[in-house]
Amino acid sequence: MSVIRQPGVLGRTTRRRVVGTTAALSAATVDAVAVGLWFGLVVDARTTSTALAGLGILFCGSLLRAGIFGATISEMEDLLQPRRLAAALTLTGSWIVWLLVAELIGDTTGFVVATLVLAGVLTGQFALERHVFRPQAHSRTARGSLVPAVLLAIGASLLLATAWFTNWTVATPPLSLEITTIVVRIDALHLGILCFGLFAFLAHHQRFERFLDP
Predict the structure, then answer these.
(1) pLDDT tens per residue across span 27-78
(2) Phi, psi of 176 (to 5 degrees)
(3) Closest residue by Cα to residue 187 from 44, 20, 9, 31
(4) Transmembrane ranges (predicted)?
(5) Which is nearest to 152 in space by CA: 207, 97, 105, 113?
(6) What is the pTM of this model?
(7) Strands 169-171 and 175-176, bridge-based pairing
């Protein structure tokens, strides 16, 4: 019997796609905001206060993203369990290691090596997250951690490239309002965050599709 004659099957498929897309969009937004704010704080003026503030933002974003992942693929439980905190801490550490490797090596070589390191570390973090939130998942979801990790690493490389290899700003003419004047400025870093968010969406969509498909 065709799927058209089974409205229940079609309805479940549609719901899975809607849930997967919504969860991927939510996770990508959290990643873009958290990583973008952290990166913007530490890449320009790195002081103790900005480093601590950026670290707090990055960890809160990692914890929230882990919560979205867990609520989507499993029953919602206490996110502050040690093993779930470990998944968020590992994600936070992944971004810190990525930037440290890029800066320690420097130039184009550091850029390439850091991207490869991030892809590898994220592959392990995604596998850990799968084990934490759905330990009974099939092996194909474990093998499927590589593609989302590579997509997210590519997005991160574009974010880093906008800070290292580009230096442009687009500003609108002053817009006069009744009590103030507004100037809208868009620079390369904003575009980098946007590209990172797009690749984050593609990465998370891949992950959720694998977990939500029967």
Answers:
(1) 999 999 999 999 988 887 777 888 888 899 999 999 999 888 888 877 655 5
(2) -85, 125
(3) 44
(4) 21-39, 51-73, 85-105, 111-128, 149-170, 182-203
(5) 207
(6) 0.85
(7) unpaired
| Joined tokens for residue 117 | 């390191």
Burial 57-94 (b: 16+ CB within 10 A, else e): bbbebbbbbbbbbbebbeeeeeeeeeebbebbebbbeb
CA neighbor of 156 nearest in space, from 38, 14, 4: 38
Cα 32 to the center of its chain, rounded Å: 6
Give the span between the Cα atoms of 25 and 69, in whole angstroms: 11
Q: Which residue has the tokens 């891949």?
A: 206
For the chain, first and last CA: distance in Å?
A: 18
Closest to 153 (Cα-Cα) out of 118, 194, 121 = 118
Instruction: List the beta bridge partners of residue 187.
Output: 169
Tally the C-alpha atoms within 13 A of residue 82's C-alpha that lie toward its C-beta: 0
